[in-house]
User: Fold this.
Amino acid sequence: MLSVALPKGRLGNKVYKLLEAAGYACPELLEDSRKLIFTSEENGVKYALVKPSDVAIYVEYGAADIGVVGKDILLESGADVYELLDLGFGKCDLCVAAKNGFGEDRTRALRVATKFPHVAEAYYRAKNREIETIKLFGSIELAPILGLSDVIVDIVETGKTLIENDLSVRETIAPVSARLIANKSACKFKDAEIERIVREMEKAI
Assistant:
């Protein structure tokens, strides 16, 4: 049986509809329940409902064979998994943004507020730019407005929030969308099952 880490919430609903279209339905999953594990013997799959930010961890350590996670979370976690398929939804960009008119002082470290410290550090390290990382969990856009940071590294979907707060994108780090990932050992021992589900998901997309 193939175990799937399914992200909770809006992303998970989209993923489940795609899996259903690919022939991997599990009707019990649609019932109003507090259960976290759902099994479809008929289709040979077991779904585990997981917090989106934890999917890559469950897959990396083999608690799930495959899972779906945003590219942003994948980049930040550095999880040692295989990336099998770009599902084409949940599209946005991981960007550097700053207040309009911001002028960078290159004589000191750049203060960067973000939910993605590892991504930010890797990005600026490649540019040989010293930074001071400030990890935040709430509205990142507030940081440069209140003078906490010079710039932010965050997800940008429409850019409306930036515009309304007098901020703008300065650089794009990476495009982001939902990705199907797999545990490396599972790809050896369950290769036929994984190849089949990838093939059927590609058709459904």
Notes: The mean pLDDT is 95. Residues 104 and 121 are 17 Å apart (CA to CA). The first helix runs from residue 10 to 21. The helical segments are 10-21, 55-60, 71-77, 117-126, 142-145, 160-164, 184-189, 191-204.
